[in-house]
Amino acid sequence: MVEGILLVISGPSGVGKGTVCRYLLEIRKALKLSVSTTTRPPRQGEQEGKEYHFTTPSRFKAMIKEGFFLEWAVVHDHYYGTRSDAVRELLSSGQDLILEIDIQGAEQVKEKVPEAASIFLAPPSMAALEERITGRGTEDSDRIGRRLDTARREMKAYDRYDYLVVNDTVEKAAGLIDSIIDAEKCKVSRGARPPGGGGEC
Fold first, then answer.
1. N or C: which terminus of the chain has fewer CB atoms within 10 Å of its end residue's CB?
2. DSSP letter at 198?
3. Residue of higher predicted confidence among 105 and 173
4. Strands 97-100 and 6-10: what pairing?
5. Superfamily for the 6-34+95-190 domain
6. Entry pTM
7. How far apart are CA 49 and CA 37, in angstroms?
8. Mean pLDDT throughout 33-38?
């Protein structure tokens, strides 16, 4: 069986990673989204096991020591991580999987899983990104300022990725990522074969 594709989608805070991923899952039904573990409190409407697995800082630190995570990072004072066992199990069964993670986590994944396809999701402009971050209305001015500073730094990391997708509209960005998945499936290095040669892309 051909192993599934691990798709790393990353980008600055506020760029709309979650919205694009949700739309992508609608247009590509067979795709799955990895559920990260975090120590941040749930936002309104978030459910355990759907958006995130929520845990305590002490338990998260214990999981780090036990080697549970494929990647983990501290972002805006909270821990986030992706469990290795869940990712490996899905990929080995042929399942294509999205990791929607931050810049730090994306770098760790590419070191451990170099065949992963990494996509940097960028805003149409810095002004648009700033408007999105300040318009959330869920954080105080100090935290918003830190988010903006972090986002500006994170924008400089785009050239470490395999692909760059601009999120000018959710539909267009998701459509481009859908096409990237098709292209990845046609790579000979991933096991694509001509008709009669063990399969086709």
1. N
2. T
3. 173
4. parallel
5. P-loop containing nucleotide triphosphate hydrolases (3.40.50.300)
6. 0.84
7. 9
8. 93
